[in-house]
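Researcher: Predict the fold of ROK family protein.
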Amino acid sequence: MALTRELAAAGLLEHQHAAAGSGAGRPSLVVRPRPERAYVLAFDIGTDRLAAARVGLGGQLLDRREADTPTRASDRDMCDVLAELGQQIQQSATPGSACVGAGAALGAEPTTIGSDLRHLLGRPVVVGRRAQLAAVAERERGAGAGFRDVVYLQGGDRVDGGIVVDGAILGRHDGQPPAIGHMLVDPQHGLPCSCGSLGCLDTKLGRDALLTAAGRDSEAGHRDAVRAMVRDAAAGDHTAAKALASAGDWLGIAVANLITLIRPQVVILDGTLRYLYAGAAEQVHARIAHHTTPDTRRPIHLRPGILGQNAALLGAAELGFDAFLDDPLHITAASA
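Model: Structure tokens for ROK family protein follow.
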């Protein structure tokens, strides 16, 4: 109570009476964060859209703005758009609230966006990989909430994701995440991959590969095109159904490999993979049952992601809150 009293005095927490129970004695107080008092700016830099959000303490999305990614944009061009969105969001903040940090979700390529945003915003911006941050958000506040060991797989142009082990995101010594899309699944008969190998998971479940297998124009490679393929397969399109069943096999093999290695409590499927799983769950589970042993297979939950387009934003917000959570009273006072 002494610790929470200080935080409550700073406006960061509030005490509420719990609902009356059937037991004896006075009901305990419930301590909750006050999201509007301290917030971070979160940014998501995607290939076709830029998004910014004001996320309050406790992970509550308070405001969100987005804009199309400028064509042939430089890092500085995108930062100009993001900074403008961030300023709009700050102007709508509750009087007396404090911005206590900023985080940004970036793609895989090296970029100067973090340093450019820091210059424009006048505050440090912590950056991380989009898929990893989405994994963190789904584990903290989405489909993986309550689990310590989570595998998150995200489909799109390629297959990406993140692995959370004992509550911590898994990375390599150089700070880069595991290259899930380059997991080898078909080395003997697979197609060439951008990494130089043959039969990587990207060549089976990347967006272009899925659409080509279904006889679709890979140039129309947006998420809705994969969703349409799954819908057409259910409606009787033989080519689409065959491609979907094959994709379900490869997804099941990939998940089986990860289950064997990581033994997660839950596997979360997002992006285009959530649509594939919805249409080919039978093939996915059949492959998992065939390629795993009973002790690694149970109890494993397969779930679609539930945070949608906000997953990377909320993960970026978690980054932005890291320093604040180490010293909330000092940072709140300095940011007021």
